[in-house]
Amino acid sequence: MAKNQEKSLDINDEYQQRLAKLARLKKQAIDPYPARSKKDTSVADFLNNFKKLLSSQQKITSAGRIVSLRLQGGSCFLNFEDYSGRVQVFIRKENIGEGEYQSFKDNVDTGDFVEFSGQAFETKTKEPTILVDGFKFLAKTLLPLPDQYYGLKDPDLRFRKRYLDLILNPKVKETFKLRSEVIKLTRQYFDKNGFMEVDTPVLQSVAGGATAQPFVTHHNALDIDMYLRVAPELYLKRLIVGGYDKVYEIARCFRNEGIDHQHNPEFTQIEAYWAYKDYTFLMDWMEKYFEFLVTSVNNGSTKIKNSADVIDFKAPYPRLDFKDTLEKALKIDLDKTNDQELAKIAKNAKLEVDKSWGRGKLLDELYKKFVRSKLIQPTFIVNHPLEVSPLAKKIVDRPNYVERFQLVVKTAEICNAFSELNDPLDQEKRFDEQRKLREAGDQEAQGADSDFVEALKHGMPPTVGLGVGIDRLVMLLGDIENIKEVILFPTMRPKNDD
Predict the structure, then answer these.
(1) Are residues 137 and 29 part of one domain?
(2) CA atoms of 119 and 129, how far apart (whole Å)
(3) 303 and 437 belong to one structural domain
(4) Where is the Aminoacyl-transfer RNA synthetases class-II family profile domain (predicted)?
């Protein structure tokens, strides 16, 4: 018999045993899934106040999931845990009564949620313990947890069954605690600087605001195709047109792209727009943001350990011109290099060049290959090609380039920002160019949003906008290599159990 078949039989056998215990509890008129608990003390509170509770012998009630169980004749030791920690429990037959003890012994399993009432007790080995005088089943579990000793190691299983991952791998909880803290601190920084948090549509009639292939859905009542947003940008800028000066959104976005260690089709970013400011101002301001964020989560230090590197977020950060840096890396003059020559360079560099790639796409992929992949310390790449920046303002004396920057750290783009294009006729022309690229086969070209152009025709002041990827930021700060580790429920291929 194959090992996986044996395992399946073992699990099924235990499932049947647990169903029998469930039936027995019900037969004893015990509700295995009550609606209420009298828990008044967390594990952390019990442990932090143990000396005081021990001397006062104050009665407390705590509860959680049983993670280990050592049943003996007339007594048992067990450990349970809640979100705040793990604690030992000691149950004696004479303390709770023979019938109650027998019921507990006959029906309990690891994984069960149980409420325990009692007093602080110190064992001979000085371990803080709850000496129980009463208990209550809160949730009878029907499936066993994976072995505590071996843990849950298979990444695919961990991501599919995150609830088991959280139970068995304590460091995972710390990752998502860090993620929560990053979002709280980000809100704090933007709120303190006078920004207003807003919500914009996730369902959009035009997929605009970023160079990405969208997900398509259909609205039955209106009988129209709609798109999950690739970015909230065009709606946030409508709010600037409407009279707000500072707005931001922590936005869930969706891009119908490949999945790898840095990309998940569903991701989170903060986008913000600030009227009457430009990209040079914003670079200084974002340096302060990253210093604030990193020191807040890193005990006051601007330096973090990431794999073999020590990354320092102390400002200022180097500012490298896109064109100059790429020319230096490729040893060419971009102004004298045509698209066919760029495509040849890309092919020689083992890039999979698609016939739909225009000059902008070629430059961007070469930049990623020869420049971005070498950057470890926080570095601003500034002044990107016009072709890859259809929503950014042109540099006055360099019309083929725009007022844009990206912050790159450990080879990954962490922040993207630019002085926003507010010339409606120029924006209309660039949307037409994006439409032509899409018709030529570029599925990532931006949608042409005529309603947004109409909004711009009502006037938008000089504005700077930015986007920061929350997932990648948490990866960086938590020294994590796979984006699936920082998304609670990452996108996975459905598993065929047949």
Answers:
(1) yes
(2) 8
(3) yes
(4) 176-494
205-233 confidence digits (pLDDT tens) = 988 888 788 999 999 999 999 999 999 99
Domain that holds residue 91: 14-145
Q: At residue 208, what is the residue type?
A: G
Can you give the pTM of this predicted structure?
Answer: 0.89
Give DSSP secondary structure letters for 186-231: HHHHHHHTT-EE----SEESS--SSSSPPEEEEETTTTEEEEE-S-
Q: Are 89 and 226 part of one and the same domain? A: no
SS3 state of residue 29: coil
Q: What is the pLDDT of residue 497?
A: 54
Distance CA 415, CA 444 (A): 20
Q: Is 215 helix (H, G, I), strand (E, B) or coil?
A: strand
- 100 labeled binding residue: no
What is the three-class DSSP state of 22? helix
Q: Which residues pair with 311 in a beta bridge?
A: 304
Q: Is the peptide bond before 316 cis (omega within 30 degrees of 0)?
A: yes
SS3 470: helix
Contact yes or no for 50/128 (Cβ under 8 A): yes
- Residue in 157, 391, 390, 173 with CA at minimum distance from that of residue 273: 391
Q: Per residue in 163-191, pLDDT tens?
A: 999 998 889 999 999 999 999 999 999 99
Q: How far is CA 188 from CA 36, 197, 284, 296, in A?
A: 35, 11, 18, 11
